[in-house]
Specification:
The chain is built from twelve helices and twelve strands. It is an alpha/beta fold. Strand 9 and strand 10 form a beta hairpin.
Length: 409
């Protein structure tokens, strides 16, 4: 079960709108309200969502008919007739998330409550479209069959891969991007291959979406997710929704040139952030020392042994990440910045400790609701979980900017 903490006061909650023209938004609000707060009665949903009792009753009945909500019975408390309670249906529609990485493919199946119902990891050696598209179809069929095949109703499939998209000639760090996909309508060809509606995203943005729905980002509407994949990416959540940019490349921080705080700067492609603060950079360091860091278990073992090569990389990466954090805060005025991805939790914790003391930024305030940097809670499947969250985000998460406009009307 993915951790699902309750929202705090720092998270803005969407409200509904009574006009019928906003019915789609109201459905999102009701689903999100029940998902966020656990079993609720109609009256409590109406109060929290600022909808009429009749509007909530109609929406709840509709969502029950679609197997998205389930009736749990009556809450026994106080006098009078106890209210019926409703919760998201864990056996209702589900979503599939697939992460296409440079050397493996991760597939997860999650239900509306956020529980992982099935997962698989398979190694891949070739990542061009001709080889990957059949693998996508096989992955979806396989994970559905693990739970009953066609009886598993899907809201959709999310597919994520490393960015940047549609960029040529940009500095890159080793095998951090996938060849052969430039110029293709990936969404269309993936949908055709799988036979389901597909959402496409870069891995860092998808990871931020996963954290927003199920992890540490659930408490925050404006945060950034520093994603340690093979390279280094940034997912941006603004007003509860992912900030993608004009071409889906927002947050490609791995290609920035950053002057480290305690080391001389290196300029040009060799000074790109990914060259120092990424899993690829770590493996490069380890390989030069005759060590392997190909798996999470190997990295964990090195950290448990206080391996000097790993500790030296943590120190160097932190020197580059510290000014990066301050720059992100000054640009986006985040509530917090979350670290996560393919590194073991203990190494992420070590990186967070090593970036201290952070440079002064707009986030330097005596009163804060969260530390400036925290670790994510969705673990090492974060990009695949984020991929699975993409269809869910479009189905059950209200747009906060629409809520604000409605409230003003």
């Amino acid at each position: 079960m993915i951790k699902n903490p309750k929202p705090t006061g720092s998270a803005r909650l969407a409200i509904g709108s009574n006009p019928e023209r906003n019915r789609s938004h109201n459905r999102r609000v009701v689903l999100d309200m029940v998902r966020a707060h656990g079993p609720l009665g109609r009256t409590e949903i109406a109060r929290r969502a600022q909808l009429t009792a009749q509007a909530v009753a109609n929406i709840v009945d509709e969502l029950i008919g679609e197997d998205m909500l389930v009736e749990l019975g009556r809450l026994r408390s106080g006098r009078g007739q106890p209210p019926l309670q409703f919760a998201v249906n864990p056996n209702g529609p589900m979503t599939v998330g697939i992460e296409i990485a440079t050397d493996h493919m991760v597939t997860v199946l999650i239900d509306l409550s956020g529980q992982i119902r099935a997962q698989s990891i398979r190694q891949v050696t070739v990542t061009d479209p001709a080889h990957v598209l059949p693998e996508l179809n096989a992955a979806v069929i396989g994970i559905r069959n693990s739970l009953g095949g066609d009886a598993v109703r899907l809201l959709g499939v999310g597919v994520v891969m490393p960015g940047p998209f549609e960029i040529e000639g940009m500095s890159s760090v080793g095998p951090a991007t996938l060849p052969g996909w430039t110029g293709l309508d990936v969404k269309s060809i993936a949908s055709a291959a799988i036979g389901e509606a597909v959402e496409i995203e870069n891995d860092a943005t998808a990871a931020a979406v996963g954290e927003r729905l199920y992890g540490a980002g659930r408490n925050h509407s404006n945060f950034c997710f520093v994603y340690f994949g093979v390279g280094l990416g940034l997912g941006v959540i603004h007003e509860g929704r992912p900030l993608r940019g004009a071409f889906g490349n927002a947050g490609e921080i791995g290609h920035l040139g950053i002057t480290p705080r305690n080391r001389p700067g290196i300029y040009g492609p060799d000074g790109a952030l990914e060259r120092f603060a990424s899993l690829y950079a770590l493996r490069e360091r380890l390989g030069a020392a005759g060590l392997s860091g190909a798996t999470t278990d190997e990295l964990q073992q090195l950290h448990d042994q206080n391996n000097p090569v790993l500790l030296a990389w943590i120190a160097e990466a932190a020197d580059y990440l510290a000014p990066t954090i301050a720059a992100i805060e000054n640009l986006l005025d985040t509530e917090t910045i979350i670290f996560g991805g393919a590194l073991p939790d203990s190494i992420i914790d070590a990186l967070i400790a090593a970036v201290e003391p952070l440079p002064v930024s707009v986030a330097t305030r005596r009163v804060r609701t969260a530390p400036r940097v925290i670790r994510g809670q969705t673990g090492q499947l974060t990009a695949a979980l984020g991929a699975a969250a993409l269809p869910m985000l479009e189905t059950i998460t209200p747009r906060l900017h629409l809520s604000a406009r409605i409230a003003a009307e």
